[in-house]
Amino acid sequence: MATQGGVVVSASLLLVLLLGACLPAPAAAGVLLSKLPKALAVTASAKSGQVLHAGVDKLTVTWSLNTSEPAGTDAAYKNVKVNLCYAPASQKDRGWRKSNDDLSKDKACQFKLTQQAYAAAGGNFEYTVARDIPTGSYYVRAYALDASGTQVAYDQTGPDAAFDVAGITGIHGSIKVAAGVFSAFSVAALAFFFVIENRKKNK
Q1: I need a surface site. Which of 59, 66, 107, 176 has the fewest CB within 10 A?
Q2: Residue of 116, 126, 143 whose CA lies nearest to 61
Q3: What average pLDDT score do residues 109-127 get?
Q4: For residue 67, what is the DSSP state?
Q5: CA distance 124 to 21
């Protein structure tokens, strides 16, 4: 009987191990922004409070290795990715825009401006604000990526130095003017027919 009990226990243990092997592994945490070094130096041409108009205005972003970093810091840097990020004022009460220290869960930096090969001398990019960028406050963040595409360093222009984007509402100015003209014409036509009807009644 003892032997049978030992066999039962062993079988149960084996079953548990097999089930454990079949279960998916817990998701690994993403890269934490708070753990990344600010080894890049990033600037943007838009100043704090400046308003850029979507589809019209341009934004120039410049990046380089931070001069305070020791030589060889950027040995693993292969690419630089630049994103446009919602500033805190445009994240309030909007969970789909919230920033997160875990970059795999971050929703603030949704708009990719460019990704270019890293150069020790630095680089820059001129970006015309896309027509689909919503109205809001923004700042720029740049990541240094390693060969696997993982973020290994960063810098950003904000969120304290946020600038604004005036998005396209979908209603062109000329359409508003035309609507106003037609409205005025409709009122005038209504008044004209009202006078005519009154004259007919009086006759």
Answers
A1: 176
A2: 126
A3: 96
A4: T
A5: 48
- Please write the tens of the pLDDT for every residue from 46-79: 999 999 999 999 999 999 999 999 999 999 999 9
CB-based burial label for 166 (10 Å; 0-12, 13-18, 19+): middle
Q: What is the pLDDT of residues 165-180, one digit of tens each?
A: 999 976 444 544 544 5
Between strands 79-86 and 136-145, the pairing is antiparallel
The SS3 of residue 92 is: coil
Distance of CA 190 to the CA centre of its chain: 50
For the chain, count helices (H), then strands (E): 2, 9
The DSSP secondary-structure symbol of 78 reads: -
| Strand, helix or coil for residue 8 | helix
Phi, then psi, of 52 in degrees rounded to 5 = -110, 140
Q: pTM here?
A: 0.70
In order, the DSSP letters of 109-177 are --EEEEEEE--TT-EEEEEEPPTTPPSEEEEEEEEEE-TTS-EEEEEES-STT-EEEE---S--HHHHH
Angle CA 39–111–34, to nearest 5: 35
Sequence-distant (≥ 6) Cβ neighbours of residue 71 within 8 angstroms: none
Estimate to the nearest angstrom the gap between the alpha carbon of 7 and the chain centroid: 58
Domains and CATH numbers, the chain: 33-166 (2.60.40.2550)
Pairing of strands 163-166, 51-53: parallel
